[in-house]
Design a protein that fits this description.
GO terms for molecular function: GTP binding; uracil phosphoribosyltransferase activity. Pathway: Pyrimidine metabolism; UMP biosynthesis via salvage pathway; UMP from uracil: step 1/1. This protein is an alpha/beta fold and about 220 residues long. It is built from 6 helices and 13 strands. The strands form 3 sheets. Strands 1, 4, 5, 6, 7, 8, 9, 10 and 11 form a 9-stranded mixed beta sheet that branches. Strand 2 and strand 3 form a beta hairpin. The protein is globular. The chain starts with 6 loop residues before the first strand and ends with a helix.
Length: about 220
């Protein structure tokens, strides 16, 4: 199965070397958080490459007048709680004025289905472009549930970009097939998804590793 042109899998050496560190089972939580944040910054930078620009005339530098450029969009970030919070700071460093739209979803360990428990979506659409922050796309169920929430809110698929550190091939394809016009920007894709819904070799449970909550 080939990947859609909307699926952008990174080949950047910095991302791949950072991801190698994140996969290590004994990496301290502090280093894991820093690695997730660093990869998030690079992926958001790449995902923003083709955003539109408009001219801003009549500006003044220390030397002379000039015409600058700005992004004319209301940008939003939608982290999926709780692991998506690991990407939130990196996102806000890129777009400090962005609106943040938290979505609470967890995956039932038996059915592997996503269950919604929280939504901070205003009654009216407040963003022209939303970056969905989901560090891992395993089965794709959580990302699909979040995309349904955002499109039911009023966004079109073309107004959403997914930022993810790692996915399974099956999960990424599941998301792409159901939402073909949503761009996915992802650090790497692993071929294997286990029967329990874990990416292999993967990097484990991102939420537990971010917040050091192993049982």
């Amino acid at each position: 199965m080939s990947l859609s042109p909307k699926i952008n899998v990174s080949s950047h050496p910095l991302i791949l070397s950072k991801l190698t560190q994140l996969r290590l089972h004994d990496l301290p939580a502090k280093d894991f958080r820093e690695g997730i944040r660093a990869i998030g910054s690079m992926l958001i930078y790449e995902a923003s490459r083709h955003l539109p620009l408009v001219d801003v005339p009549d500006l003044q530098s220390p030397i002379a007048p000039f015409t600058g450029q700005t992004i004319p969009l209301r940008v939003g970030f939608s982290p999926i709680l709780r692991a998506g919070l690991g990407l939130e700071d990196a996102a806000l460093e890129m777009f400090p004025e962005a609106t943040v739209l938290h979505l609470g979803l967890f995956r039932d360990k038996v059915s592997l289905q996503a269950i919604e428990y929280y939504s901070k979506l205003p009654s009216q659409v407040t963003a022209d472009m939303v970056f969905l922050l989901d560090p891992l796309i395993a089965t794709g169920g959580t990302a699909l549930a979040a995309l349904n929430m955002l499109t039911e809110w009023g966004l079109s698929q073309s107004q959403i970009k997914i930022i993810s550190v790692l996915g399974s091939k099956q999960g990424v394809l599941n998301v792409s097939e159901e939402f073909p016009d949503v761009e996915i920007h992802i650090g790497a894709v692993d071929d294997i998804l286990t029967e329990k819904g874990y990416i292999s070799p993967g990097l484990g449970d991102a939420g537990d590793r971010l917040y050091n909550t192993f049982h």
